[in-house]
Design a protein that fits this description.
Elements (H helix, E strand, L loop, with lengths): L1 H19 L44 H13 L19 H6 L5 H5 L2 H18 L1 H7 L3 E2 L2 E2 L2 H11 L1 H9 L14 H7 L19
Antiparallel strand pairs: 1-2
Helix pairs in contact: 5-7, 7-8, 7-9
Length: 212
């Protein structure tokens, strides 16, 4: 009987010793986000400085004009101000050099490094496209063409993608002509994706210019 007691006691002590190796001797409450001193954090935290946010895809603004801008920016560049694509289109909204020249911007290096200038350029080019498409907006807004419900914001987004002239061509061929950009993105997809945003406060301008 004594031998059995010694045997089972030894087993219990051994199990307790082994189990202690899996427990911390000091109970410390760690914060939910914990890193050691020499680790690199890849998280970004709230800041009032717009330059601290190279990718501005977290903004949720519904169907406002700001929502319209951010939705297009995310599709075009994921909100990256300094991005230049394979065709030379630049910035958060992927502008071509010709479009920038049309609104008075000629220094592309300065443009890429200036978020405020890019935001102004987007609004100016929307105003210009609204001028160029004023007849089509008046005629087709709210109607269905080529199986797509046409809205002012959808037309302006499509003009941003392929130019106002291509949007005019779309209506001229009653929506039956396939029109895409260099990457194969269709004009029709922009008409659908960016429908019903509020662009009503943008004043159509024939020759808008941008300056700081």
């Amino acid at each position: 009987m004594l031998k059995k007691w010694i045997y089972y006691t030894s087993i219990a002590i051994a199990v307790a010793f082994i189990s202690s190796g899996f427990k911390t001797f000091k109970n410390e409450n760690q914060p939910w986000f914990y890193t050691v001193d020499d680790s690199e954090s890849l998280f970004q935290f709230p800041s009032q400085n717009i330059l601290d946010y190279p990718v501005s895809n977290l903004l949720s603004t519904g169907k406002s004009f700001t929502g319209f801008k951010e939705a297009i920016a995310f599709k075009e560049s994921q909100g990256q101000y300094k991005l230049v694509n394979a065709y030379g289109y630049m910035g958060k909204y992927q502008f071509g050099a010709g479009a920038l020249h049309a609104i008075g911007i000629h220094n592309t290096a300065n443009f890429l490094n200036n978020p405020q200038l890019q935001e102004k350029a987007f609004t100016a080019l929307i105003a210009k496209n609204k001028w160029e498409l004023k007849d089509e907006i008046e005629k087709y807004d709210g109607k269905t063409v080529g199986g797509i419900k046409i809205t002012e914001s959808g037309m302006l987004a499509a003009a941003h993608l392929v130019g106002a002239g291509s949007v005019k061509k779309f209506f001229r061929y009653k929506g039956k002509r396939q029109i895409t950009d260099g990457f194969g993105t269709s004009l029709k997809s922009y008409l659908r994706r960016y429908a019903n945003y509020d662009t009503s406060h943008i004043v159509a301008q024939d020759n808008p210019t941008v300056s700081l």
